[in-house]
Design brief:
- This protein is mostly helical and 297 residues long.
- 68% of the residues lie in helices and 1% in strands.
- Strand 1 and strand 2 form a beta hairpin.
- Helix 3 runs antiparallel to helix 4 and helix 3 packs antiparallel against helix 16.
Length: 297
Amino acid sequence: MMDIKTYLQERRELIESYLKSYFSVPSSPPVLHEALRYSLLAGGKRIRPILVLASYEACGCSPEEIIPQASAVELIHTYSLIHDDLPAMDNDDLRRGRPTSHKVFGEAIAILAGDALLTEAFLMMTKKGKDGKEIKPLNLVKCVRELALASGACGMVGGQAQDILSEDSAPDRDTLEFIHSHKTAALITASVRLGAILGGCGMRRMNALTKYGENVGLAFQIIDDILDIEGTTEELGKSAGSDTKKRKMTYPSLFGLEHARQKAEALISSATDALKVFSSEADPLREIAGYLGKRKA
């Protein structure tokens, strides 16, 4: 049985090393460059880029070949966190255990840092991997389309908008599932699909990986909902209990904690079941699902 903690640490180091190198050369104005690095290099689990790598590995490929493409997803995720934390949205003071971007750099620079990361992600997607490996043009176009769909109004941003519009509203199952499937699951599913696209995966395996991503993505958000209630600010690296204070629409608020836990467990089980078409090359994905299902932060 593989050591999932070691696997995640090794893949995280690949992503961290690339991101630090990519943003090592100062740009003008310096404060914008500093703001980019402040949020991007503040730590984090790097689950989304790791899922890109694990999916690519499941297709029988070497993860080092697509570090730029995997890292690009982290830029999208970080931009969304910066904007999510803004006073006009969730108005949070802490992220990844440190003051949020707008608390350090002001709202204007925080907004622009998020804008810059979103745009830079698509440039990063075009970069060569290890040993100068280039992505096939058709696969690159597919990846750009996949990431744009998952990130924009039809995906993450649409979910974020509905999340804000639903504050102080009576919990509703359809609305809740829309929020979670778009705000969180869309980018996680796209991460898994990106690895499959880059790895030249066939339709049968692509469908299996898509189902895996959808289930893991929903489970991830439900567990976030639970941890917001049961976790501490120190454990989470952000303000605990914020969903309740803002009257967010969450699984625990609609179904209760125990049912939410059962739902997350069922989704994790469905995710691993979807990988039956793969042999041991998909073990990292299987182990990641289990790890996410048990996470405490």
